[in-house]
Amino acid sequence: MVLFFRLIAFLEGLSYLLLVAAAIYKRTHGNEYFVKLLGMPHGILFVLYIIFAIVLKPHYKWDSKTLGIVLIASVLPFGTFYIEKKYL
Questions:
Q1: pTM for this structure?
Q2: Is 77 left (phi over 0), alpha (psi -120 to 50) or beta?
Q3: pLDDT tens track for 42-62
Q4: Keywords on this record (predicted)?
Q5: CB–CB of 42/12 below 8 Å?
Q6: Which pLDDT tens digit goes with each residue over 9-21?
Q7: How many folded domains does the chain comprise?
Q8: Is 59 helix (H, G, I), strand (E, B) or coil?
């Protein structure tokens, strides 16, 4: 389960960066295709990241502050990569 969470953290961060790039492409070229393509997978990965972070809190012995940092990182570009290296 821990290995799966690390994979989810990486994929969630990657999908977030790709979605940001797709949003920029949409604004500059007027093409929504990539945003539509990446939106749902990113949403699913985001929800899985949040659920796994809460479920694995006791395993990692995180206090509430650390859990808060891990959860906030999911909405920051490159945040999950930082968490994966520092806390996982």
A1: 0.85
A2: beta
A3: 999 999 999 999 999 999 899
A4: Cell membrane, Membrane, Transmembrane, Transmembrane helix
A5: yes
A6: 999 999 999 999 9
A7: 1
A8: helix
Axis-axis angle for helices 2-29, 79-86 (nearest 10): 160
Domain that holds residue 59: 2-86
d(CA 58, CA 8): 18
Instruction: Tell me the two tokens of residue 34.
Output: 């990539």
Q: Are 81 and 10 in contact (CB under 8 A)?
A: yes
Here the tokens at position 65 are 């502050």
User: Which amino acid type is present at position 73?
Assistant: A
Question: 8-17: b or e for each residue (b if 16 or more CB lie within 10 Å)?
Answer: bbbbbbebbe
pLDDT of residue 81: 85
